Structures are given as structure tokens and as C-alpha cells.
Amino acid sequence: MTEWAAGFPRSRWTEDGVEGGERFLAEECAVAIVHDASTTAVLMATPRDLEDLAVGFSLTEGVVDDVRQIKDVEVVETDLGFEARIWLTPDRSTQLAARRRRMAGPTGCGLCGIESLAEALHAPRKVEGRLSVAPRALLDAMALLPGAQSLGRETRAAHAAGFWVPGAGLVSVREDVGRHNALDKLAGTLALAGERREGVVLLTSRVSVEMVQKTAAIGAAILCAVSAPTALAVRTARAAGVTLAAVARSDGFEVFTYPERLLG
């Protein structure tokens, strides 16, 4: 047993009969993202790398523009889950407080911390990366991802987000039961490490619009995923200057935007 997975008894049925055994299941708990003592969002997440999650969420959701606007992060366990408490620099704290005062009242939106449709569908920052990657190198990078998924191997129930840099390899991988959380954790660990951004974001999930927006916030010019994107994700990648490759298999992939970075 680990802090992010727990063993449960189960019965397995096959045509040969029924057998007992145990399966490790990924833990899932409530994680409150708290900025300057006010809750911004509550996520259901794997209780692992929560500082990375807090920092990455703050960056990819636009609470901060730079990791230097975060003074301190503290993760506290409670009876109901975890609180990731982020303290901002005075200027950023003032801006966040003003944003909160603009809210007319409570909202029922399913997107964390979003106050309007305009915010949910905001134009992402434009990525100007000059990175180009050979098609075979991209497939080789994707092939490295399964070996780095400790939680995925143990539970078969977790998504992963990785960052691959030519010449350096797979520099970071983060996992979570939620695909958005995995990508936020990756964004956080890269920001805290001061990692260079000329790399490729690798995903084990489908590509929705939020995944493209978060990739653009990281500053990565290339995004590759094992599953297909949504139509809005492709339009957003085109607007963000992100090369979007998807449906990646051992023998190939499909490119939907800016193919010149991969195909020459």
C-alpha cells in the first residue's frame, strides 16, 4: 500500500471460473486550492505531488502569470481531504482580490474558478516555439511514457502527462486520476524547477480544449496524445500556435495543426 493507492479484495471471473485476489486502486480525495486564505477551487485528485498541482493550477488557470508571483505553498491534510494553500505576492494578491469583487454572486459553472463563458473560452497565449521533432523521435518519446507511470502500472486507473526534451529525454512525468490534474502537476513541477520550455507535452488522454489551453500556458509548442482531440481543441491549438498530434500508436500518429514542426 502507498499513499496514492490501496489494495482491495476482489473476485475475478473468467471462462475458466472465479478466483479471489486483490487489486490496487488509485486514491481519490478532495483537494481545495486556496489563494490568500480564500478557496479558488476544489478538485478531486490523487493525493500525490499536491504542491505541483497547486502551482500548476495557479499558472494554467491564470491566477498567476509567473511562478515568482507565488510567495509560498503549504499542503495541509484535514479530515475531509487536503488544502493546498498558496500565498501570493502583494501586487498579485491585490489583483486577485479585485477580480473576486467583480463577481456578482455564486456561480454554478462546472469549470473551476471561471466567472463567465468568455473566460472559459479565452484566447490562449500564443506559443512561438521553434522546436521541430522528427516523427520517429516523437514516437520514441511516447514509448517512454508507460515505463514512467508507476501509478498507472499499479492501478490501471491513472492518466499521465510528461515533458520530453530533445537530447535530454523524458525530464518529468506526473500522474493523477484526472487528466487535467496530471497536466497541472506537470506544469507546476516544470515551473518550480525552472525547466526550459522547448519540449513536447505527452498525454495518455484525449485532448479537450482545456488541455490545449494548459499546454499553451506551459509554453510548449508541441502536444502529443494517445487519443483523439475534440474539434474545439484543434481550433484552439491553431489559435495558440501549438502543433497538435494525436491518436499516437507505435506505428504512427495524426497531426492536426502546424505539421511542419513534425513533418518538415
TrEMBL record:
It comes from the Bacteria. The keyword Transcription does not apply. The keyword Cytoplasm applies. The active site is at C109. InterPro entries: Cytidine_deaminase-like (IPR016193), FdhD (IPR003786). Its main location: cytoplasm. Belongs to the FdhD family. GO terms for molecular function: sulfur carrier activity; sulfurtransferase activity. One of its GO terms (cellular component) is cytoplasm. It is found in: Cytoplasm. GO terms for biological process: Mo-molybdopterin cofactor biosynthetic process. Keywords: Cytoplasm, Molybdenum cofactor biosynthesis, Transferase. The lineage of its organism: Bacteria, Pseudomonadati, Pseudomonadota, Alphaproteobacteria, Caulobacterales. It comes from Caulobacter mirabilis. Required for formate dehydrogenase (FDH) activity. Acts as a sulfur carrier protein that transfers sulfur from IscS to the molybdenum cofactor prior to its insertion into FDH. This is Sulfur carrier protein FdhD.
